[in-house]
Amino acid sequence: MERLHLFLKERADNDLLSWTAQFAAAEHFGISFAHVEEATLELGLLPARYQRNRQAISVVQQLRLFSSTVAVIGCGGLGGYAIEELARLGVGTIVAIDPDVFEEHNLNRQILSTPATLGRPKVQAAAARVAEINPAVTLVPIQIAYAPKNGNDILHGAQVVVDALDSIPTRLALAETCAGLDVPLVHGAIGGWYGQVATQFPGDDTIRMLYSRWVEGKGVEQQLGNPAFTPALVASIETAEVCKILLGEGEPLRHRKLSINLLDMEFAEVRFEPLQEAVGM
């Protein structure tokens, strides 16, 4: 470890370490890029890829992100963008959960979808994309559908879970699983020009409250479809929520929902009290 630390220090430019130096360290010592990034951050050095983060995220906080695990349930419109942004942000481990393969109708909005990935499992495309854009990040692909019976196993170890689902019953079940695991859940939903984001912390009933008036049937996304920009925006807000939770910074969307109307360019905040949630108000 001392030899690695010396190697990194010698190649640092002030407190920045270039990708070339990181690559050289991995090759020289026969270690993973994740190992190199961890050692770099522990030394108080900053991988140069994150230098535009430094005004908002300190080196200590960057190490915290790298040491974190985030699970993303669904790797389609919302999930693909969330995975892309979490990897670029430097979250060290991303667990991607989705049973599906890409189909042609995904091409209009899903960032991991290309003609070359049609018929390919979404989690495999996610792993390939993360390896391409940030090799220090570990993407764990799980090609199964989340269900209450497997939830505890596949979400074990995650500090935050991202809801990128398109099924209301499934996200209600996911909220219960996260509550049982004592893990925050960042919820996002989209449909046409519209979207919403909210965060459920352990002990809250946020998701149940949001869908208290839901009746059996397909969600609004099935009725309104989705242009490219709606999942990109909503997933970005979800990623910001994840970052704040992991770093303990800012004010998350707890006990409130951000409603997004891109057609009229209106953003509205809906607040609700915890006691009101409990009685279904």
Descriptive notes:
This protein has 281 residues and is an alpha/beta fold. The chain folds into 2 domains: 2-56; 68-278, 3-Layer(aba) Sandwich (Rossmann fold). 42% of the residues lie in helices and 17% in strands. It has 12 helices and 10 strands. The chain has helices at 2-11, 19-29, 33-42, 59-66, 77-89, 122-133, 148-154, 168-181, 206-210, 220-224, 229-247, 274-278, and strands at residues 16-17, 46-47, 69-73, 93-97, 138-142, 160-163, 185-191, 194-200, 256-261, 266-271. The strands form 2 sheets. Strands 5-4-3-6-7-8-9-10 form an 8-stranded mixed β-sheet, with helices on both faces. Helix 1 (2-11) runs antiparallel to helix 2 (19-29). It is globular. The model is unreliable at 275-281 (pLDDT under 50).
List the main descriptive attributes of the protein structure presented here:
Rossmann fold, disordered C terminus, single chain, alpha/beta, two-stranded parallel ribbon, globular, 10 strands, 281 residues, eight-stranded mixed sheet, 2 domains
